[in-house]
Design a protein that fits this description.
Layout: H1 2-12, E1 20-23, H2 31-47, E2 52-57, H3 74-86, E3 96-102, E4 105-113, E5 122-123, E6 126-131, E7 134-137, H4 140-147, H5 165-168, H6 171-184, H7 190-195, H8 198-205, E8 208-209, E9 212-213, H9 215-221, E10 237-242, E11 248-254, H10 258-266, E12 273-276, E13 285-288, H11 292-305, E14 314-318, E15 322-328, H12 336-340, H13 352-360, H14 370-380, E16 387-391, E17 396-402, H15 408-416, H16 422-432, H17 441-449, E18 453-454, E19 461-462, H18 464-469, H19 473-498, E20 503-504, H20 505-512, H21 522-538, E21 542-545, E22 548-551
Parallel strand pairs: 1-2, 10-14
Antiparallel strand pairs: 2-4, 3-4, 5-6, 6-7, 8-9, 10-11, 12-13, 14-15, 15-17, 16-17, 18-19, 20-22, 21-22
Helix pairs in contact: 9-13, 11-14, 20-21
Length: 554
């Protein structure tokens, strides 16, 4: 959150303008107004070619931080996102709603994406805009400006001057591209495709425009010696081998043509044969450490969605138990949950020409389901799911594919309960990796209501029901006991620091508030703390004088 605190400080220092709105909203704010401001700020951000606009609650018009109690829990924030999406053009909604502690006061930052090019963003059928700091219906001039916007510049579609098919394209890459094209376009007779000239074939593939080679053509099919013609962009993928300690053991740089070099890169992987015990059998199956589709799809996605204007290479790290991919550029679906939503198909790409070529050469699919398939394949193998690390403050996407079971409890759970949904799998997967920040409060409530987990945010454990299914009752009991011991030690430490002054029960409950299970209501918390106090008194560790508890001298 430090990055967002710095960003807020920068925003407050600016004039409000058309893409930033401040509201005091000390306790509540009209959701209708939020929708209208979303439309206005999204449209204005589009017109100014700004990626995001901001609405900030808890800061007044004089840009003094006053604090807000609006939308205190994540469930209510997610419900608001849903409500906005239901009434907004293209199902748009806040990219994120970020609660911050700023100068000791709570502030809410609403991250509003700019409207798509050529599309006017409307709230309940009405388009809004800004006139200075005023909220107004979007003017006809602005509507026309948005509707007649030129399409986004596609870096990959640009012509590479002074290039020819004969001099700059690799013959083997061209031959492979034809073979892959036939697999995708099986409705076109193979012998007809064979009759096409190279110019015709590349035109049909979408990488030759007006008889000239595009950057996409060079990336996919170009000779290694022609890679310099893409400068200042870097057409390079670096494979690095590291050991258990993270020390570099080997590396190699790969360049174009990517349609061939991907096979060479993935050929470096030490894809070991493992043994897996299928459900309901005593005989193990042989299984590869990494699924071929998963590791290939991740590499192709890095190539397809790389922001080549940032002049960075794609990095591919091989560790003993995982593969890590890193490419420059924002994650266009926004969040991994959105990418996995079946009805949320991607409408545009950063490199449309490059993606078109890759689709025609059978490198990526045509319905944007590749990421979904990666997740399902890992789930079916009872392996940890792909780990997407999307940094909203830095244009970079990091993907980790695991080739080793991290937590056997998780694997056993999947084997015993096939009814668990993919979303639940993603949440459980994050928990088993101890990445609790990726699991929302709403998700935790669902997992708890389905009796899959117990505990608190920094130390979730499998539930008793799951422990019974997976023969983990002894371990569950031990972990549960350790949690109780932790509360006992916290109380002992608190009373020791207070000395003879003593502490009332309500003060102890207040002290433990952030640590106590969120699922417990106030009465349950009182009972829970009272039971611990009673146990400590029976063990002659603490005593009660009047209404106060004190530590006993040792």
């Amino acid at each position: 959150m430090d990055d967002y605190n710095k960003l807020l400080e920068q925003l407050i220092s600016r004039v409000e303008g058309e893409v930033i709105e401040y509201k005091a909203a000390s306790s509540q704010y009209d959701k209708k107004k939020l929708g209208e401001y979303f439309s206005a700020l999204s449209n204005e951000a589009n017109l100014r070619d700004i990626e995001f606009a901001w609405m900030i609650l808890g800061v007044n018009n004089d840009r003094q931080v006053s604090g807000t109690k609006f939308l205190l829990d994540e469930v209510s924030r997610n419900l608001l996102k849903h409500e906005i999406a239901m009434n907004m053009t293209e199902g748009m909604t806040f990219r994120d709603i970020i609660p911050l502690n700023f100068d000791g006061k709570r502030v809410l930052m609403f991250k509003i994406p700019a409207g798509p090019r050529n599309i006017v963003v409307k709230w309940k059928g009405i388009a809004y805009g800004r006139d200075g700091e005023s909220l107004v219906p979007l003017s006809q001039d602005k509507i026309d400006t948005i509707r007649f916007q030129r399409p986004l510049d596609d870096w990959s579609a640009h012509i590479v001057e002074n290039t020819t098919i004969e001099d700059d394209l690799d013959e083997l890459a061209l031959a492979k591209a034809r073979i892959m094209y036939k697999k995708v376009h099986d409705n076109t007779p193979s012998d007809i495709i064979d009759l096409w000239s190279s110019d015709e074939f590349l035109t049909y593939s979408g990488v030759l425009q007006e008889g000239k080679l595009t950057r996409a053509a060079l990336l996919l099919l170009g000779k290694e010696s022609s890679a310099y013609k893409l400068r200042p962009a870097i057409a390079q993928i670096t494979w690095t081998l590291i050991n258990e300690e993270g020390r570099k053991m080997d590396y190699q740089h790969f360049t174009i043509p990517y349609i061939i070099k991907v096979d060479e890169i993935l050929g470096k992987i030490r894809n070991l044969t493992m043994r897996e015990m299928p459900m309901g059998t005593l005989f193990p199956d042989k299984i590869m450490q990494y699924d071929n589709f998963v590791i290939r799809e991740a590499m192709h996605n890095a190539i397809a969605h790389q922001d080549y204007t940032l002049c960075q290479r794609i990095n591919f790290i091989e560790a003993p138990d995982y593969l890590h991919y890193s490419n420059a550029g924002d994650f266009y679906p926004g969040t991994i949950e959105q990418a996995l939503e079946p009805l949320n198909q991607q409408k545009f790409y950063r490199n449309e020409c490059l993606c078109q070529g890759m689709r025609n050469f059978n490198m990526i699919d045509t319905v944007s389901s590749g990421i979904q398939t990666m997740f399902y394949k890992q789930k079916e193998r009872n392996f940890p799911l792909p780990d997407y690390d999307i940094n909203e403050t830095k244009p970079e996407v990091n993907v980790t594919i695991y080739g080793k079971v991290i937590d056997n409890k998780y694997v056993e759970l999947l084997k015993h309960d096939s009814s668990i949904s993919l979303k639940e799998c993603i949440w459980l997967d994050a928990i088993q990796k101890r990445k609790y920040n990726r699991v929302s409060e709403e998700a935790i409530k669902i997992l708890k209501s389905n009796k899959l987990i117990e505990g608190r945010k920094s130390n979730y454990i499998i539930s008793l029901a799951v422990a019974r299914k997976t023969d983990q009752v002894p371990e569950y009991t031990k972990q549960k006991g350790l949690a109780t011991v932790r509360y006992e030690n916290m109380i002992i430490g608190f009373l020791s620091n207070m000395g003879s002054q003593g502490v009332m029960r309500n003060d102890i409950i207040k002290f433990l508030e952030d640590s106590l299970p969120a699922s417990k209501n106030s009465e349950a918390k009182k009972k829970f703390v009272t039971n611990i106090l009673s146990k400590l008194r029976r063990n002659n560790i603490i005593s009660r004088i009047g209404r106060k508890w004190i530590i006993k001298p040792q």
